[in-house]
Amino acid sequence: MYPAIPKKRALAGLVIAAAVLAVPGTIALAQDIANDKVVVTVDGKPITEGDLKLADTEVGAELGQLPPEVRRRALAEYLIDNKLFANAGEAAKLGETPEFKAYMEYLRGRALREQYFEKILKSTISEDEAKKIYNARVAQLKPETEFAARHILVASEDKAKELRAKIVAGEDFAKLAGENSTDPVSKKDGGFLGYFGMGQMVPEFEAAVVKLQKGEVSEPIKTAYGWHIIKLEDRRAKAPPTYDQVKDTILNSLAVRKAQETSAEMRGKSKIEYVDQDIKKQVEEQKQKQAEALEAAKKAKAAGAAAPAAGAAPATPAAPAAPAAPDAKK
Question: Is the pTM of this model over 0.70?
Answer without folding.
Answer: no
